[in-house]
Amino acid sequence: QLQLVESGGGLVQPGGSLRLSCAASGFTLDYYDIGWFRQAPGKGREGVSCISDSGGDTYYADSVKGRFSISRDNGKNTVYLQMNSLKPEDTAVYYCAARNALGRLSPVQSMCFGYYDMDYWGKGTLVTVSS
To answer: CA of 106: how far to CAs of 37, 66, 102, 113, 114, in Å?
Structure first.
């Protein structure tokens, strides 16, 4: 019954914006580091943005810095990814994933861009940026 569910994906024109949501059910996200990852067709998975359990630390891939913003609302048991100034190369399936902070084997930054030491993965939401 423990699940992560992404929502908010869809078709958007270049330069547009979308806000993705990652909602947890069956457990609380209070104790979890959260990451957003994406996989474009025919390409490997890459880290996009991550946030620590407290929300005090955030990290972004160079390709999205200044355009994307990650946040969390523990009261809603939800993490968000605000995506602005979208580009065609942002087209991908976006996944959220959670790692229990008590089980950290690496810093959040490494979790995001190196070893994906995650406990739970969502099924993804498709973002298509096209005119």
So the answer is: 17, 25, 11, 11, 9
Q: Where are the beta strands (DSSP E) in 1-131?
A: 3-7, 10-12, 18-25, 32-39, 45-51, 58-60, 68-73, 78-83, 92-100, 120-121, 125-129
Could you tell me the CA-to-CA distances from 7 to 53, 93, 111, 125 in Å, in that order? 21, 11, 22, 6
> Per-residue pLDDT tens for 59-102?
999 999 999 999 999 899 999 999 999 999 999 999 999 999 99
Please name the residues in contact with 45: beta carbons below 8 A apart, sequence gap of 6 or more. 37, 38, 39, 95, 116
Q: Give start and end residues of each alpha helix (H) in the chain.
A: 108-113
pLDDT digits over 7-18, tens only? Answer: 999 999 999 999
Burial class (CB in 10 A: 0-12, 13-18, 19+), 36: buried
